[in-house]
Fold ABC transporter domain-containing protein.
Amino acid sequence: MMGASRLEQTDALFRKNLVIQRRACKTNCCLILFPLLLCSVIGGLQILVNHASSHDVPTHFDCSCSNVTIDENAMGGMDCASDCPLPRAPKWPPLLRLPPPKYRAVQDGLFPSFTDLPDASCRATWSCPATFLVTGGNQSFVGSVADSMFIAQSSSVNLSVDIAPLSDFVLADDFTFLQNKCFPGLALFYPVQLGNEIVSEEARCAEGLMLWRDSSWTINDEIYRGSYQGNNEKKTDEIAAAYDFLSSDQANFNLIISYNSSNNYDEYLESEYPVPLYDQARSVQKPHSVQVARLSNMASNAYLNLRGNDLKMSFDFVKEMPRAAGHLGPIDISPLIGKLPFVWTMELLFPVILSNIVYEKQKKLRIMMKMHGLGDLPYWTISYCYFLLLSLLYVLSFMLFGSVLGLRFFRQNSYGVQFVLYFSYMNLQISFAFLVATCFSSVRTATVTGYFYIFVSGLLSEVLFRSYVEDISLSRSWIAVMELLPAFSLYRIVYELSQSTWAGSYMVSSGIRWIDLNDPENGLAGVLTIMVIEWCVFLLFTFYLDHFGSFQNGIRKVAALVYSCINGNHFQAAQQNIQLQEFGASVEMERADVIKERETVEQISKESNRSYSVICSKLKKVYHGKDGNANKTAVREISLCMSRGQCFGILGPNGAGKTTLVNLLTGFSKPTSGTAYIEGMDIRLNMDKIYSGIGVCPQDDLLWENLTGREHLMFYGRLKRLKGAALAEAIEQSLRSMHLIAGGIADKLVGKYSGGMKRRLSVAISLIGDPKVVYMDEPSSGLDPASRKNLWTAVKSAKQDRTIILTSTVSRFTL
């Protein structure tokens, strides 16, 4: 028997799938256009952000500030916008950050043992001092240093002529300067340059309170419990800063500084009284980042003051570095909010691929095609190519829509790099779906599992995997191990592209380019390598499990094939002789015709008679009992032979084993013992070759709902090597013999067929292409008497030079 070549099988399957996908064009288009929805949502949000930014920040800046002459005897100058050049930066004094007066530490019952804190009544007048805590190994020395941190001033000071002494004053970010004791009307005046104009700025006096604590642990506890979220009473007793002088004395100076690193105090809010945040646009707020240096300078100067000799270490001013003109556009939200949605969007094809593969498995369409000669390689090739084409269109639409809508995530990174990374992932996703599909036989279960996988894997990527990637202390090898999960590999790609986009928006970076793939910091080269290797491994495992069903079956079958190749044709003869020798212990109650059939099989095996199409040799099938139930024997060591031109009927009630016998002969099921030979080929070893010369009408109608009857016959006819006029003639003959011509039935979708029409189409499929052996399992079920009579007429005329095996119940079988 010579079946269709792999190229012919591929062509037949491609034509059939093309018809199906053409009818599912609307669904496929909606799927491919789904990225447009996501990109449109993000693009719309980006437009809103841009619109809001255009109202908050002027689109055109006055950069005349760049030409302002800086007065050296005044603070400030002109604070230019970031888009303007800044050749001469203004100078500002270093500032301390102090908590607002109403949140400063007081005696409010939170620390009853600390009676040195100010009375809570000061909050009503906003006059609470800023508390600093100190400790160390030498209390008297620490007390002396603490008393010298603030220069005592009894009258107002005007520095309009010379601002150099300004460094002696401890300035705070709320326009105050700290003193151990404030007198009425005490103030500090200093010149500030605003553009080309110089104005006098006033700093009010604020008291700074230095309090001793016995240990750093006590200080730590007081600072922690003084925060709004550090106590159950939800009170706020904020400490400005703390010093631990350790073993400092007159000969050495050691210091630990505790400070508040947050940018605001809103974490200490009371629900109805929000803490006012300072306007970060105000120029005097800029030096916040140097408050640690200012705290250190306060302690250092106090220490030098104790040493005498008028030693002083001044911290006068801070300045920005000169800069060229830059451009800071509106915030790009795509790398901020797009990572998880982008990952979910790219994974969306996984359940689609999975459900499509499992659908043909559940409906047994795959095995139906296989029984009519379709090999594994053409099937997987066409399936893979289709899903790859769908994935390519999906990726291209994703990149296209994102770029057209102006998302920097797509525009800023190299399109070539993006395509290669996404293309590699899509190949991995297809092979992964193929592998997972071998574990399912239900479309509903597979679909639910697929969507559950993309949802959970996406969340784990964002919540868990991202934290590991950003943890520089974690070994990169562990990151590579985690990236073995395809979802994590995809997230790493999207994450690195997002980070590059974000950096490019504010650091004038060009995004990810080809040369950046070699950068070990982004790990993209490793991800690409992992995906390629996994793609190959997944495909190999898929082929193995699909071909052998399990690892154990694969090992046994490979061993049998190797033995067969070594021993050649002697293997089949030996198997027959071994099994026929077991016939000696015959059962006394067997009927004479059964005994005669066994003797015929034995004689045929000795003579190597090739005139018989089907030979069953002690074929047996036992279903093992579960949950303590006994084993059930469905086929009991049957031996029979069928010659060409013979129509062989298998009669019996439901449950007699008729369908099981047909399943054994067609490869649906594996025999427990014994074997059968179809045209001289063993069903245990040569089933793929046997399929090319048989026709099957299974008990259930295994048909595509969205193909017509004619298209079914055209597909299966091509699998039987029919072409052109011969194919058209065979289709017409089959349709006429099964009465599927009248009323245009042949060109209607099978989904609209009645049960009887589907049954007649199944019979027509089994006969097309002149197969040498035809199996018909309950072919007349569901047919009315007239249709049943026409069926038997067609079967009688088709049995010339072929073997037809029919099964039916006793009450219905009438030839």
